[in-house]
Target: Phospholipid transport system transporter-binding protein
Amino acid sequence: MKVLTCPSARLDLAQAEQLFGLWQAAARNDDVTLDLSGVTSADSSALALILETLRAAGSAGHRVSVAHLPASLHGLAALYGLGPWLGRLEGNTAA
Model:
């Protein structure tokens, strides 16, 4: 399992665009854990990045888990109706 991190405390559109290709490639080649322990704030592009990483992994038969999800993402996930989906990824593995 490969652990992927965000090098910035803020996971916004600019950061998501930088991480997109790296996270997609990793998810296509191995199971991944998205370690967001360094992220203190995030916007909806972070949810999109996680979802696209999950899709890439699933299409290749790999799994994704999320560790240390920031509180701001919990709120956004609930707003978009993704709370249960994101909860399944947090601390677990899902394809």
Observations:
- The chain is about 50% helix and 15% strand.
- The first helix runs from residue 13 to 29.
- The chain has one domain: 2-89.
